[in-house]
Design goal:
5 strands; alpha/beta; five-stranded parallel β-sheet; Oxidized Rhodanese, domain 1
Length: 119
């Protein structure tokens, strides 16, 4: 791992929260954003109330948003959510975190999830 890679990883880790911390933020009004692909959502379930945003649409979906609103991002892993957190921070969002362990950690913590209907 190069120094640049390590710095990048440390930067992403600085914005990690555990599932319970993420849930507390959402309960206090943070926007919960699921950036997993549709197939992952269909196969593994969803978090009720989470807004699904395709990673390729982050720039357009958040171009005109309230940059002070807290946002919690999750994917299947931090490798998927971390770049989205950094992208939102580059857009000027000031309170953006992602879930350590992603959707699986949320689900394994006993927090609310549901299956999508087949089809």
């Amino acid at each position: 791992m190069s120094v640049t890679d390590h710095d990048s990883t440390s930067k992403l880790d600085a914005h990690l929260v555990d599932p319970e911390g993420a849930h507390a933020r959402v309960e206090q009004g943070a926007l919960l954003v699921d950036v997993r692909r549709a197939v992952s959502r269909q196969n593994f379930g969803v978090v009720p109330g989470a807004e699904h945003v395709d990673k390729s649409e982050v720039d357009t979906r958040f171009a005109d948003g309230d940059r002070s609103r807290p946002i919690v991002v999750f994917c299947g892993s931090v490798a998927g959510s971390g770049p989205v957190v950094e992208q939102l921070r580059e857009f000027g969002y000031t309170d953006v975190v992602h879930i350590d362990g992603g959707f699986e950690a949320w689900k394994n913590s006993g927090l609310p999830t549901e299956e999508l209907p087949a089809g």
